[in-house]
Design brief:
alpha/beta; Rossmann fold; Spore Coat Polysaccharide Biosynthesis Protein SpsA, Chain A; 9-stranded mixed β-sheet; 28 helices; 41% helix; Glyco_trans_2-like; Glycosyltransferase family 2 protein; Lipid_A_modif_metabolic_enz; NAD(P)-bd_dom_sf
Length: 972
Amino acid sequence: MGYQIRVVDISPKSYFAHPAPMEELVGDLCDIAVCRRAVDGVTTVLHFAAVMGGMGTIHESNELAIYRSNHGMLLNLLVACAEAGVKSFFLASSACVYPDHPQTPNAQDVTLRERDVWSGGPPAPQGLYGLEKLSAENLLRMYSSVDGLDIRIARFHNVYGPRGAWRQGREKVPAALLRKAIAAKLLGDQGTMEIWGDGSQRRSFLWIDDAVNAVALLLGSECREPVSVGSDHAVSVKDLARITMLTAGGDPSSLSLQLDTGKPRGVTSRDANTDFIHDQLGWVPSTSLEDGMTKTAKWIEAEMLKIIGPLNVEERSSALKSFQTSHVVELATTFAVLLPITSRFTRQPGDCLENLSKFADSLLKTTWRDTQSLSAQFRYRVYLVVDHDDSFLEQSKAETLLREKGIRDITTLICSQPRGHVCALWRESAERAWRDGCDYLVLMGDGVELLDEGWMRNVHSEFASIATAEDVTHGIGCVAFTDTTFPGMPTFPVIHRTHMDIFNGKVIPDIFINQGGDPYLFQLYRRFCASRMIPSRLQNTVGGSEDARYEKHTVDWTFEVLDKGTARLEAWLGPQARRRLTLDIIVPSYRVQLLHLDHILQLKPSPTCSVMFIIIIDDPKSPNVTLLEKNYGHRPDVRIRVNKMNLGASQSRNRGLRESSAEWVHSLDDDVIPNPDLLVEGEKVIRAHPNAAGFVGNTQFPLCENITSTAIRFAGVTYFWDIATKIEQDIPWGVTANLMFRRNVRDGITYDLAFPKTGGGEDIDFCLRKRDFTVGSGGEGFWAAPRVVATHPWWHHGQRSYWRFFWWSKGDGALIKMYPEHTYLCGAPNSGEMLLSSMVFMVLTVVFGAITNDWRPSFVALKMIVTVVVASVLCDIYRHVWLNPERVKDMKTTVHGLGWIFAMAEGTIIRMVSELGRVVGVIERKEFGHLGRRFDWFAGRVGTGPRDEERAKCRETLVVCVLILALLLARA
């Protein structure tokens, strides 16, 4: 018909598949700004929005909130319509506008005519919901007479049909009874059906398509009086129950009704008189109750099967049983503010009251709008938690102070827990709040000040966002404040009562004393992508990352405790559970090079992986620390820790492991440039080999653009950096520049601090122990991850410096003693050993020459040194050019010709420096018995080939040395 339609709803989800041209706007009509957006450019408004439901929602404790919300929406819309020049306005009113007295107990059906609203004295609609609808009708009439707004009003009587609410307390009686009947049928137990009231109350019910037809006719008519839109065929709720059992495919004859007279039941009798609407519009309902219920039953059953389909037998039975019960909905959302307070550990006992006063002021300041909002009805209840032996506070001083501030809903708990056991206080107060029916629970402290208004609605909105994004029950998740005193750390998490339901009223396990509970909750829900940190800020003037008022007791909860909680949460979620793989990136950094760290911190995982970055700064004096914290410290997925002093790479990595709670860890050097897909590719290999000890990434180097960088390649000291391209599985070890491994196994394996702070051998030792433990436990070794690529720049920008290789080898020489099973005797000295021997001989001959003035031995020693270097260079050139040219033919370098030969020669020097460092390390450690032994870098994984090749190389070099030295000595 050419109409442009805009649909506005507070919920982002709908059972309806909207046509493509239809515009959708998600927002709250209690916010006038949303109303203005909604009616901009609109000529006709159809106002169906309302806080409503069946008797589970429209009951006494919700009435005032319903009135405020619904009337607030109408007022906002009318203001917006006047500003936008809207021409026509349709109001969805309700049969609840009719007075109670004609609908009181009697044996006859009561048919309600439009004029009955005003009969029998002053209007007396059903509750505040009905009063608001009647007030809305009157307001529209008055407004239209002044403004000329063309109005239409329809009073609906119990509309039902597919795609309406059918569970969670918002549904009306047809959908509620159909849900129970279908659940009974699927359970195979159709004996009993729950009914609110005594079942004698009578109602008429209208099929949704008939209601839509009535609205269409009304909009096209000249009728501006309210019309009743309903059926004139009433049935008792008992009869409706039998109809639902029949239409759901059950046996009505076997039905037994369980009457719950304690629940809301509504009026006794209500039926629509359709004479007026028939006269004005020619409308009559065309669908029988039985036909409509049959169609609705098919839709509800299909929706129910979507939920229970993936469940196992036990979960399916539990879910179906829950569908057989209706619930009363409380619209007000209550936050439990758990507030332990103590007069101990302060300069004066009264200081705690001063802190409490500041907290109370911040609580009032940041919640005033939320507690007075028209739509989302929030309230808070403060649970003061006081030690039983705190004599200063035992006389209700704290509660009195709060009441003087204007905080009225307070519960004081006197707890007999050991001093400093804050987590025990948390558990006790949380359980009490849960039993009191609070919706959200947050542990605060008397040193906390809330900084931002609106935190309650932000928390509630974030939980709703989690439910929508993850398709889980509302309440699943953990939402943390932004703590300005401890940025990026989830120190004040908020959890929903659903968490308490899952864990039987226990907010955190008993193992926690006064540390770790906050991050435990955050990491627990992180595994389901249900942990969030909101911008709402607070500051904690006591505790945080600094000293607390009590002795800290840290427990290691990141293994069995976290896994046990995860398993329980996953079992409760059932088919809702979309478990994420958790991976922490650990980067020790001494140089704090922001450009390189930026590349790492900008990596993105896939939607099925949760990643946290843990940066350990090993130079507390680095000027870049402040800038790094400024740029990334606010991110909940980035944790920056600064060592108090330079501890070295191994100890920094160990600290990173202690900070981690993920299933897997990815170790990166702080100067690598990872490929953008590094995390995605890493997740792929983890999922492909979940039983592996870990994965060795592919660490590449840039193009060799000078002789030195080419020489490093010839020296072979970077052979294992890209080992993932050479061996597919059971790789002996990988460099920590790009290494992944499983963390959530209590194997006790960390980086051994016996190795040098600058590195050398610790990665080999770590991988060997990790592999042995995993294989010994029935797992697999390290797999190659050739697509997990990171590029490591050339050290010192490719400029000449050999010390790094010397120190590496000095450290990794310790492996010979640690792993004798992976060592072997070579039978001949290598170039480094011969060079060191020659140098020692040179020193001795110089001393001898200085004493005797006989320098001939010194010249012999000098010739020996020259011989070792020349022989080593010649042998390496021979191997690179003639013996094994295939090993270097694909080297990525711009160096050719004579430079190629020079690079080979320098490569020999680098190799000799490396070997020399290894010998020096053995001597310094006084491991003299290991001189002449070699470590098998392949740990036997590829057979004896590498050992045989090393032996041959040493023999060949020794032979050439002897020949050259003999020639030199002969000519002398």
